[in-house]
Every structure is written in C-alpha cells, then in structure tokens.
Amino acid sequence: MTRYAIINVPAYGHVNPTLALAQELVARGAQVDYYVTEEFRASIESTGATFHPYHMPEFGPPAEMPAPQGGPPQMMLIQMLHANTLALPEIIEQLQAERPDCLIYDFMSLSGLLAARILDVPAVKLRPSYVPNSSIGALMARGPFVQGRPPMGAPGQAPTTPPAGAPPMAQGPFSQIKGPEMTAFQQELDRLCARYDIEPVSPQDLWFHHEELNISFIPKEFQPGGENFDKRFVFVGPSIFPRQDAPTFELRKRAEEPVLYISLGTVMNNQPDFFKLCFEAFAHEPWHVVMAHGKRIDLQKLGAVPANFQVAPYLPQLEVLAQSRAFITHGGMNSTMEGLYYGVPLIVVPQQPEQSITAQRVSDIGLGMALKTDELNATILREAVKRVSQDATIRKNVADMQQTIRNSGGAHQAADAIASFSGQPSK
Predict the structure, then answer these.
(1) Which of 144, 340, 392, 408 is the most buried (most CB within 10 A)?
(2) What residues does the Erythromycin biosynthesis protein CIII-like C-terminal domain cover (predicted)?
C-alpha cells in the first residue's frame, strides 16, 4: 500500500481544493495521512484520510480592517511563517515514524517544504491558484485593482530570481516583508535548517521553488501563459467537494426572482462598509440577494436587512452558486473556480493582490467584470450586476469556461499524476 502524507496550512482556500484529491487517493487503496489543525478534522476525516492535527499559534488579519486596501498585513505573513516553524517538530516526529512514500504539500506550507527536504522523499507541490510566470508579471504591470497595492506578480517561466527592475510584488509575496522582524525570522529559520542538517531555506523558496511534480487547481486556460509550462506542471482545474461544515440553507424567494450571491470569502471579509453598500445598491432591485458577511461582522451595525436579502455569517457556497445568476466575489481562487463551475458570471471586488490578478483575468477573458475597490458606489455595483447577468457574450464565455473546467480532470487527474510520479498504476 502506497502511503501519502499531505501537509497543509490552516486556511479554507488551501484545504478545500485538496479534499476531493485525498478522497480519490484513499479510494484507490492508498493510506493518506493529512496534517492540518484541529478545525479541519471533520472535513479531512470525511475523505477517508487519517487526520493528524498539529498545533500552532493562531494568526490572521487584524480584528478591525479599514476600507479594502489589498493584501494581508506584513505581520500576518510573518505570523504565518513563524507558526509553520513551531509546528514542524511535531509533524516531523510523526512523519519519521510513518515514513511516507510521497509527501504532498501546499505551496504556502513552510513545514511541508522543510519536511520534504528533511525526510528526503519524493514531494509534490500543490497550488490552489496560479503558478508564477512572466505572464502574471505582465498583468501586474498594467496596474492594480486593489487600492494602494500592486497585484502579486512573478518573474519568469522558471522563476528562480526576479528580473532587474521588477516591481516589488513581482518578487513574490514575501519580498514585501522587511525590517527586524523578517531578519529575526530568517535567523530562526537558519537555526531550524541547521538543526535538521538541511540546506538553508528562505521564505522566497515557498514562492519560487518547484518540485518535479506541481499541481495547480485551475484549468490551464485560466493560468496566464498556461500553454508555456513543461510537464512538471499539471493544471487539473478545481476539485469540487461538498463542505462538511456547511450549514443547512433554504432559499426563500419568489419563483421569478434571480439570485445574486455576495461573499468576500473567509479571511479579508471584515468590511462593514462594503456590506452596507450592497444593502444600498440592491435593496429595491428585482434580485433575491444571498449574502455571506463573515463571522467578525456585527450584523446590527449594518442596519436593517432589506426584505429581498438573506444574510448569514457563513453559507453553503456550492449550494447557493448552483442557484445563482450573478456572483459578487473577492476573487479568491476557490470562489472564482466554483462560480465558473456552476456557470455564474462574476463581479470581482479584490481584497488582496493575487485577487487583483484574478480580477484582470476575469475581465480579459470576458467572464464578468472587475471593480476597483476605491471607486465603488451603489450605482457601479448595480450596473455591473445588470451587465454580467444580461450580456450575451459574457454569458457565452462563462458557459464555455464552465465546460472547460468540468472537462479539466480535477481530483482524478491529480491522483493519476501523483500515482505516476510515485510509481503507482493510474486508474
């Protein structure tokens, strides 16, 4: 029996794309050990994988967020990196006892990158979003959609060093972390590498290092410059898997009302002004609006909920999208792919730099509209929803991308690639 270890970071946007893959590997007779924090236990165990919790300090965005400025705060990235290193000894102790045949890790998991080198076993890198390349750098050069921040870019097809004169974010997300905090963390990381007798690692390696097999959960047609990647890179499209923690939901609308879904995801969603703006924009429009406002918003501070709105902190997104005609989204890749999987045109209001790239990509391919965060008002939101829901070209483009996504292979193709890489027969 082949034994796989999956190491991930505690973030829904990174865990959710892997669930169907874990289930597929288990269904093929493999032993799958999945390492992440306790909050994901139910989701992991539902796949048939063996859940291994690791412990790490909590990290996240500030409790109070200003109007959308784009990008996680620098300290949040440092916290994430530091938390990863604290979890490493616990993970390594279990891995050394289990001796997996192949290690699979998310590209943001510093523990996964280090564990692959410490154990010296074949490793597969997972990316829930883009693989950095020069085409993303070209998108970045066109300017941001997120106020005050350039989008996240990358240098070239074999991204090992940034090009001369590249904008800072072209050097990867960690290039923006400067000062004594980052210096102290790099020293901590150097000591950790010395402890395990491996070559020094920098946070930049998370962004630029590639394994012999790299799997991206988007279709090649959505990846800028996707046609230029070599056989190390497999674009499988989204792996749709029912959420185990999704609440029950009943859509309460009149039969003739189209559904508009609004969500800013699970991280940068503490945006009360944005949700108030949605109330203003659609309170008297012929839409039934379903809105997920996140768990950090005090709903009472948003004012009276309009009669045509259903709101909740968290909603079963797949179920809602299956019934929606338009989707206002932050442009997180899970949400983007899930919206397109169900054939829903998008209005992207990005909250982070990578989401600015997605906003531009959605606009360029004609899958919806991208809105700048510092130019939003009720009229702009209303007109954007009207356009994407009525424009025949946008709707055809979305239908074509929906077919592309559903034909991309998903978890089955990812499992085939991993099985071949690890010397196992594909199914």
Answers:
(1) 340
(2) 298-403
* Rounded CA separation 332/129 (Å): 9
Q: Which CATH superfamily is domain 3-237+408-421 in?
A: Glycogen Phosphorylase B; (3.40.50.2000)
Residue % of the chain over a pLDDT of 90: 58
pTM here is: 0.84
- Assess contact for 38 and 136: CB atoms under 8 A: no
DSSP state string for 122-173: -EEEEESSPPP-HHHHHHHHT--SSTT-PPP----SS-SSPPTT--GGGG-G
Tokens 């800072």 belong to which residue? 168
End-to-end CA distance of the chain: 15
- Distance of alpha carbon 140 from its chain centroid, rounded? 18
The tokens for 92 are 């390594």
The tens digit of pLDDT for each residue in 229-253 reads 999 999 999 988 876 666 777 888 7
Is 124:214 a contact under the CB 8 Å cutoff?
yes
Q: How many residues are there in the chain?
A: 427
- Please state which of the four CATH numbers 3.40.50.1980, 3.40.50.10490, 3.40.50.2000, 3.40.50.10330 is assigned to the domain occupying 259-406: 3.40.50.2000
The domain segmentation of the chain, as residue ranges, is: 3-237+408-421, 259-406
- Alpha-carbon span 419 to 386, nearest angstrom: 46
